[in-house]
Design brief:
Length: 106
């Protein structure tokens, strides 16, 4: 079955931070694939501060769907679970592009 993992990318619209071009990618890896249930949390991770408000796309693997949280404490708002996205979802009027600080996977 392989391992759980997700790769996220930060993009070039970070001029306010003084970056030009691709910020980079970050890969998360866990020991097991996600479970089929969507009512549990299989993994959760608070991003390091240099990745706050930078994620612009993500690819998930091994049946994991991903919930991106606006704040690092996993409170509201959050996007709800999505599979891989080439652009971040807009949910409840919030564009999660460059607006995630913590992630959960199910
Ligand atoms: Ca699950």
């Amino acid at each position: 079955m392989g391992r759980f993992n997700e790769q996220v990318w930060g993009d070039s619209d970070e001029r306010r931070y003084g970056y030009n071009g691709l910020f980079g990618s970050y890969t998360f890896t866990g020991a097991s694939p996600c479970t089929g249930s969507f009512s549990d949390v299989d993994y959760s991770f608070i991003l390091p501060t240099n990745w706050w408000d930078r994620i612009s796309s993500f690819r998930s693997y091994n049946v994991c769907w991903v919930d991106h949280h606006y704040w690092s404490n996993f409170g509201s708002p959050h996007s709800g679970y999505f599979p891989s996205q080439s652009t971040m979802p807009v949910v409840g009027g919030i564009n999660y592009d460059n607006n995630a600080r913590a992630i959960r996977w199910t």
